Amino acid sequence: MRLILLGAPGAGKGTVAKMLTELDGSVQISTGDILRGAVKAGSDLGKKAKGYMDAGDLVPDELILDIMATRLQEPDAAKGFLLDGFPRTIPQAEALTEMLNKLSIKLDAVVNIDVPRDVILDRLTTRRTCSNSACQEIYNVKTKPPKVEGVCDKCGSPVIQRDDETKEAISKRLDTYNEKTAPLAGYYEKTGQLLTVSSTSSDEVVAAIRERVGA
Ligand code: AP5
Question: Is 130 contained in some domain?
Answer without folding.
Answer: yes
